[in-house]
Amino acid sequence: MNATDSRLHVVDALRGFALIAIMLLHNLEHFDYYYVPENAPAWLQTLDKGVWETLFFLFAGKSYAIFALLFGLTFFIQSYNQQKRGVDFRARFAWRLVLLLGFGLINSAFYQGDILMIYAILGFGLIPVAKLKTKLVLGVAAFLMLQPFEWVNVMVAAQYPDVEFANPTSWAYFGKMGEYIPNGSLWDTVVGNLCNGRLAVMNWTLESGRVCQTLSLFMLGMLAGRKGLFKSSDATRLFWKRTLIGALVVFIPLYLFKMTIETLFDYEALRRPLTTIFSSWANFAFMLVLMASFVLVYPKKWGHKLLKVFAPIGSMSLSNYMIQSILGSCLYYGFGLALYQYTGATACLLIGITLGTLQGFFSAWWLRKHRRGPLEGVWHRLTWLGRGKDA
Asked: CB 3.0-4.6 Å disulfide test: which of 8, 221, 251, 255 passes with 69?
């Protein structure tokens, strides 16, 4: 990629699309505090159920995956640009991850489901593979995508199918949210999110197979950068067309099998790891469907006009992600407006669309006056602290 490609518009737009999808899901979940309003009319309950199932089918486990893959792509672009200057970016990237960990800590105070801290920790996995050959990195990524630890659990369960499984560790921590989210003060919420909520999310990340999948996606994003898959050319368009068709063909049986695991296997010891494995694979396949569709539609005149609105949001993804968390907690948690009590999925979807629209206007306005988003600017300056010349 040339220096002028360091900010690819389709990548910004795709990242913005993923960020808005994430925000819509977070709103439906009341930012991790699941609560169904009481006494809603039957028609609204039916509508809420349809909205919930549709959005989770489309985006749950997929929008985060797009975000993770683009994280790896960004690492490649930054590394490549520095390599052309004769600079090894890996040490600077490690420092950049430490800074991201700090942003994540702040974000976690408002929203325990924060992914920035997880990305900051797992991002170190890119450093040892950054200089390896493409085929080797692809092999490592494929191995991680297979969910090796869950297959170990499957093999153990096949030998001891009657073993009693305890509830996932994260459940106990998530259950404690009721002590501070509904009626707690801002201070109670911050302490609860940082002390209890972080443990809930870290354990859930391990239990859901997200660690292996996220690392794999980071590496695949880096490889996508090496191959220039987001540059406009006949070869890349052919790649994305084949990817779209292949991902659709693979997704259908994966999804159907995932949905029938409960009826096919009598033992929980088998059902649990198989569900994790096939859910992650199905989500990855459908993520490719979304991504390939986006990349193929974006260059078309009508597609560009429709999808470019996401680009400013994606250019300011760190700022917008943290703004989402602060606004969401103020809207839904007890220290704020406590809207969790009154809003079902339909109302939350409308709130999410409104917030996303406002973020779009704000991002476009800000970028007309500044080169980077507010937090992106801070992150950039701190990343290159001690270096005389701007990177």
From this structure: 221
Query: Cα–chain-centroid distance for residue 167?
Result: 25
Residue 222 falls inside a structural domain: yes
Query: Which DSSP letter does residue 4 get?
Result: G
DSSP per residue, 285-348? HHHHHHHHHHHHHTTSHHHHHHHGGGHHHHHTHHHHHHHHHHHHHHHHSTTTT-GGGT--HHHH
Whose tokens are 């704020």? That residue is 336
Mean pLDDT of the chain: 92
Gap between the Cα atoms of 203 and 194, Å rounded: 14
- pLDDT reported for residue 304: 85
Closest CA to 56 of 36, 15, 27, 33: 27
Q: Could you list the residue range(s) of the whole structural domain that residue 117 is in?
A: 3-383
In angstroms, the Cα distances linking 92 to 89, 182, 222, 273 are 5, 41, 17, 37
Residue 258 falls inside a structural domain = yes
pLDDT for 4: 40
Phi, psi of 215 (to 5 degrees): -60, -45
Model confidence pLDDT, tens digit, residues 296-322? 999 888 888 888 999 999 999 999 999
Q: Are 51 and 346 in contact (CB under 8 A)?
A: yes
Q: Residue 32: which region, alpha, beta or left (left: phi > 0; alpha: psi -120 to 50)? A: left
Other CB atoms closer than 10 Å to residue 221's CB: what's the count?
A: 26
28-63 pLDDT, tens digit per residue, is: 999 999 999 888 899 999 999 999 999 999 999 999
SS3 category, 268? helix
Rg (CA), the chain: 21
Nearest residue to 295 (alpha-carbon basis) of 221, 226, 231: 231
Element (H, E) at 353: helix 345-369
Mind listing the pLDDT tens digit for each residue in 202-215? 999 999 999 999 99
Euclidean distance between CA atoms 351 and 362, whole angstroms:
16
Residue 388 located in a structural domain: no
Nearest to 15 by CA among 369, 318, 314, 333: 314
DSSP string covering 234-259: HHHHHHHHHHHHHHHHHHHHHHHHHH
Find all residues with CB under 8 Å of 156, minimum gap 6, and list them. Answer: 163, 269
Residue 291 domain flag: yes
